[in-house]
Amino acid sequence: MHELALAQRISLDKKIITDAGYSVFQPQSIGVVNSLMRETGRKRQSAMLSTSNNDFTTENSVFVFVAMGESMVGGVRSKVIDLQGETFESHQRRTIPEWYETDGDEIEGLAPALNKLITGRHAYVGDLELQGDHRGQPKVSTAMGRLAVALSLMKWPDISGVYCILPDEHRGRAIDYGFCHFTRSAYKWKNPKPPGGRLRDWGVAVSSRDDLIHYLTSANLE
Fold first, then answer.
1. How far apart are CA 17 and CA 2, in angstroms?
2. Which residue in 165, 168, 166, 164 sits closest to 212, CA to CA?
3. For a FRET experiment, which of 10, 79, 129, 141 has its CA 20 to 30 Å from that of 37?
4. CA distances from 40 to 54, 143, 150, 198 (A)
5. Going by C-beta distance under 8 Å and a sequence separation of 6 or more, which residues neighbour residue 113?
């Protein structure tokens, strides 16, 4: 029902990026992803979307890279996750030790609302970045974020919603990407927090599939 409208949104966001002088590349093989990420100059992947910590396949992931000429300068990715009846908090407590290679549960507390907002089969979008001189272009980065969300909705029509993790001070960007709900300081870590676990002052943005489709296909977005 919404495929055509989502396809138009995807086309429009790609045009915003290309009109700024960039090209958009979606690899069809997971085997080339690591080399493309190295080309962008990205020094660190988030643990929850790291290619070394997660089993990415063409079926369970979306990768988008942005290039200027022959140089890859940025990207964004998403992964489908099926909680299969598990709560979001339980999933995070179980998987974070694997992601951060720590012993035991590192979470002291997680915002309770997230267990109601993130359920079943959903997508996690993250690692949006433009490198070097290409940073500071909100129109392009916003289009990249919306593109990852729209591609996720298109690829996985059965997901209940999408979420992403952003610093609290960047919560305004979540609205631009299409998210309706933002929980500030969503994670509270035990001390010491895990290496790389920078989520103490980070929030979680989440929206249902229906709300995202409504926003992305009805708003006059640029």
1. 23
2. 164
3. 10
4. 20, 18, 23, 22
5. 181, 183
In this model, does residue 81 exceed pLDDT 90? yes
For the stretch 41-70, pLDDT in tens is: 665 555 555 555 556 778 888 999 999 998
CB within 8 A of 127, min separation 6: which ones?
Answer: 42, 45, 46, 49, 75, 76, 77
Residue 82: burial class (beta carbons within 10 Å; 0-12, 13-18, 19+): middle
Overall size of the chain counted in residues? 222
Reading the block at residue 213, the tokens are 């489709």
Helix (H) and strand (E) counts for the chain? 7, 9
Q: Which amino acid is at 194?
A: P
Residue 116 backbone zone (phi > 0: left; psi -120 to 50: alpha; other: beta): alpha
| Per-residue confidence (pLDDT) for residue 43, from 0 to 100 | 59
Residue 121, SS3? strand
End-to-end CA distance of the chain: 24
